[in-house]
Amino acid sequence: MSKIHIINGDFKEMLELQFAEAIKAGFPSPAEDYRHDSLDFNRDLIAHPEATFYGRVEGDSMMDAGISDGDIAVIDRSVQPRNGDVIVAFVNEEFTIKYLDLTHRQEGYIELRPANSQFKPIRIDADDNFEVWGVVVWTIKKWK
Fold it and tell me: Is 61 assigned a catalytic role?
């Protein structure tokens, strides 16, 4: 199962990085300077700083969604979770990261679905200690 360890972010300081606006994923484009602006994580990626946290992913149950062991999830607790969202859930005293499946709500349960066929969905019934802790709005991946 993929677990997630919550990290408190410090959004007080500005972090500006040079931003390359157009990076082609197909054929290379003619050489020209694409730097037009700067990227500030606080300004550009964090819509609700007071409700946003980071979490380090542990495990590979979400690997087919592109979320791997060691990735950092940016979690917004103020976003209303919807069916199909990647969420961080607090289930029976543990945090986990999964897809939210609300399609069985009429039948009295919901499911947390992994993105790896080696793992089974987690069924959440009314008697489970369960909370959608937040919605994953970004992931940060280290390549090297």
Answer: yes
